[in-house]
Amino acid sequence: MRINLFFKLAFLQSVICISSYAFSQTVEQNVKDSASIKVQPKALLQPNQKKIKDKNKESIIKPELSETDKTTLLLQQIIENNKEDLSLYEKLHFENEHLEYLLNDTLSSDIQRNQLFVKKTNDSMWFVLNNYGESYADSVKRNKIQSSTLDILKSLIVNEGIYKDSSSYFQKKKIQKENDLANTKKQLDKINVKLKPNIDSLNKLILNLKKPEVFKIVYNKVSYRILVAPTKYTNVRIHNNAKKNLQPLNSVLQSLKEKPVALLNAGMFDGDGSAHGLMIMNNKLINDIDLTTNSSSGNFYLQPNGVFYIDSIGSVHVTRTSDYKKNIYPKQNKFVSFATQSGPMLLFGGKSNPNFSINSTNRNIRNGVGVVDNASNKMALFIISDNPCTFYDLAALFRLFKCSNALYLDGAISKMYTNINGVKTGNLNEGNLGPIISVSIK
Which residues make Cβ contacts (< 8 Å) with residue 416, sequence separation at least 6? Predict the structure, then answer.
């Protein structure tokens, strides 16, 4: 009995020792494994983000984008996805416009000048022959007319031949350029077909706006702010500067009953801040139209220049000064509520100003105003570059947003302030300006 008890105790002790050893090995292994595990930090929440828990996972929900942000992203996406095609589109536009201008203006003028010179040369030559022919014959015999008369006659004969040849040269050059133009138009039509759905989508985004909006985009490596003002829902006003000194943007706030959501410079001005060229405010003529076309003094006189005006029913218009003088000026007292004149025109009839070059290196801060097509003159588009750009770049951007007519407002001094949906851009205290444009919600 005792023996059996002894064996039982020995057996139990050995089992306990084995179990203790196995337990110690397990604990040691677990410690090693736990030491190799890296503790993952909790995800950091961005402002306005919410942490949502469910049974299976933990996720972070980003705040929903505003309608403005969504539209901005779509606009930028359309531009980025079609970057190469848009670049080719503008190059072809420039080449097409340049060839048209060359054919319609430069070459035609060269041909006309050449024809006129040939006529004058022939007339002069026959005048010499008819009036000095006998004298010339006698001069050989009697040496009564100076030999220089013969030189003049020879010169006229030679020149007559040269200019007849040059007339042929100009005609050949014209035919060559016409062929080049036809080829360029084919390429432009082809890229137009490819880009049309995207440009139409971009235009539709703008036309569907029911309130003023501002978008920040990058186009051709330049940052721009684009202010869209649908006049069905907004009031666009032009404010004269009668203070006899330059003013910041906020200077017009005290005189306004309505609170503007946007303010920007309204065009060019003289040293005392008064408008240069036409200025109409609240149906009152402040300054008459400037019809000078032969001045080389500054951008204002770079032809054609133009007028931005708001009519008596609130529709917006951009037109060339010559067209305004012919069609609007006679009735402006009853028809025009606000107007400002500036220059040059960026676009007219969908074509860029012939003075611009796609290869220009003349860059500056610039802003302008255009009227969106297919909106019954109810959609004004204001664009300001936040980086230096060329005239052609700015014109191309207005064309992208389907503005057939657009007017340059000013350069380095340009400023624009917006406060839309609680988001502010620009600075109210900035600027040394003359007239100012305001946009407010009706």
Answer: 225, 227, 262, 263, 264, 265, 367, 382, 384, 425, 426
| CB burial readout 105-133, b (16+ within 10 A) else e | eebeebbeebeeebeebeeebeebeeebe
Residue spans of the domains in the chain: they are: 71-204, 211-441
> What per-residue confidence (pLDDT) applies to 68?
83
Our CA angle for 352, 354, 358, nearest 5°, is: 70
Count of residues for the chain? 442
CA distances from 246 to 240, 256, 262, 290 (A): 11, 18, 19, 21
Report d(CA 233, CA 202) in Å as an integer.
20
Count of H-run helices and E-run strands, the chain: 8, 19
Q: Among candidates 372, 262, 354, which has minimal Cα distance to 303?
A: 354
Q: Which pLDDT score, from 0 to 100, does residue 182 have?
A: 92
Architecture of domain 71-204: Orthogonal Bundle (1.10)
The CA distances from residue 169 to 106, 162, 437, in Å, are: 14, 10, 52
Q: What is the pLDDT of residue 128?
A: 52
- Asked if residue 360 lies in contact with residue 392, where contact means CB atoms within 8 angstroms, the answer is yes
CA distance 351 to 178: 18
Amino acid at 271: G
Question: CA 19, CA 17: separation in Å to the nearest integer?
Answer: 5
Q: What is the pLDDT of residue 30?
A: 43
Q: Torsion over CA of 137, 140, 143 and 145, rounded to 10 degrees?
A: 50
Percent of the chain as helix, strand, coil, to the nearest 5: 45, 25, 30
Three-state secondary-structure class, residue 223: strand
CB 255 within 8 A of CB 222: no
Question: Which candidate, 384, 394, 388, 398, places its Cα nearest to that of 318?
Answer: 398
Residues of the chain with pLDDT under 70: 1-63, 105-167, 169-170
Count other C-beta atoms under 10 Å from residue 190's C-beta: 12
Read off the tokens for 76.
Answer: 């930028």
How high is the pLDDT of residue 367? Answer: 98
